[in-house]
Amino acid sequence: MKTPLFAFILSMIMCLGARAELKWEQTSVELHPAPNDKQAVGHFKYQNVGKTPVHFKSVKASCGCTTAQTQKEEVAPGDKGEITATFNIGDRTGTQVKTVTVETDEAPNQKTMLTLKAEIPQQLEITPNFVFWKQGDKPDTKTINVKVGKDFTVKHIKVTSATPNFEAKVEEAGNGQFKINVKPQDTNKPVASMLTIQPEDSQKVFYATARITNGPTAPMMPFAPAGQKPPGARGAPAVPTAPAHPTAPTGQTH
Amino acid sequence: MARQAAVLAAVALFPAAGEAIYFRNNISWRSAIAPSEMVTVDQARAWGDTAIWVDARPDDEFARDHVPGALSLNEDRWTELLPQFLAVWSPGKKIVVYCSSLSCNASREVARRLRKEAQLSEVFVLEGGWEAWLKKNR
Question: Is 0.95 topped by the overall pTM?
Fold first, then answer.
């Protein structure tokens, strides 16, 4: 009984030894980009510790927001190099985990998964970032909660409505929190407005949307950007009153 | 026989424990999603005009082709695209979010943000994504 068990363990050890040609310094990288960074770049260093050259067969990122590049196609014995993974942050927030799968010819189906973990800082957490009333509803005040991120200090925020149809007042709730009380002038007609939220002493702006909806049968026309088709056959669209892009609004300031 | 199996299991325990410790801070790249928040192509199509289709893929993939009538809402330009989506949404509408195998779990993330940040309900992720829709419609 001992012989087959010994043979099994020995074969496992030999298999592990045979494939360990490309040695990775690390296969997991944690990044902490600054608030305004557009990209987070991870470097995965390796060395060929084997006696034969290693070829990269493919390097694939897990999604379109991440690209990965090798410095060379072939890694000679003893050579060092790195794979650079670039994660385009866009408007993502919180913990982001992206992977890059590297396939080499060290052994059949030899794949190594490189993990890029990025903690995207969030200056303000706005919940909800959308408040709405149905046409004909009582124009009650609705509240948007704003929470300052743990690594930031914001003492005051300024809120501006793009149109005079909504009034937005800021209430300081203490402990790094604010309440934005939004009230429509009336709910007689469908209308939308962008609320611009700007922390004091900061160039960064945040947005929320306030809207009077007109029911499921006749949605408002989207602020269609170039190349985007509005949904067809969904009723006559109404004219929007909110800006197409979050540009500097004109209107009330509170 | 049982003893051999026990020995093998014990041998396997060491690397498993080591891996568990080494990768303790790694989270899955595919966030869990409840089956009730998934929808098939057939189910979503049956909703007709009561559903809004949301394309969570990057701009270039959306520009190449998309579900007819779908709106683009991706995390690359979330701040800009969200208000455009919210202008079209109306109460009672179901939201069907899809991505493709190339854009990994983008639809799950977009669906999660619509629920959490905009606090919308009836947000569903399309099973099989864009590829499943293509298979049924092309």
Answer: no
**Which residue of A65, A232, A240 is in closest CB contact with B68?**
A232
Residues A146, A80: one domain? no
**Cβ distance of A246 and B83 shorter than 8 Å:** yes
CB contact under 8 A, A91 and B102: no
- Give the number of beta-carbon pairs within 8 Å between A and B: 150
Residue A57 sits in a domain of what CATH number?
Answer: 2.60.40.10
d(CA B17, CA A250): 60
Least CA distance to B2: which residue of chain A?
A: A1
Maximum distance among all alpha carbons in chain A? 86
Give the pLDDT confidence of A57-75 residue by residue, as tens digits: 999 998 889 999 998 999 9
Burial of A33: CB neighbours in 10 Å, binned 0-12, 13-18, 19+: middle
Within a domain: A151: yes
> Which residues from B are below 8 Å from A236, CB to CB?
none
Boundaries of every domain in chain B = 30-137
Q: Which residues of chain A have pLDDT under 70?
A: 1-20, 215-254
Contacts of B79 in chain A (CB under 8 A): 91, 206-207, 246
| 8 Å CB contact of B90 and A216 | yes
The yes/no answer on whether domain B30-137 falls in CATH 3.40.250.10 is yes
The last residue of one of the domains, among A66, A98, A120, is: A120
A9 belongs to a structural domain: no
A63·B104 Cβ contact <8 A: yes
Do B57 and A195 touch, CB atoms closer than 8 A?
no
**Structural domain ending residue among the three candidates A60, A94, A120:** A120
Q: Measure the CA–CA gap between A240 and B1, rounded to whole angstroms.
A: 75
What ranges in chain A are assigned the alpha helix state H? 2-19
Would you state the pLDDT for residue A126?
Answer: 97
Give the per-residue pLDDT at A240: 38
Parent domain of A174: 124-213
Query: How far from each other are the two terminal CA atoms of chain B, in whole angstroms?
Result: 55
Indicate if A113 and A135 belong to the same structural domain. Answer: no
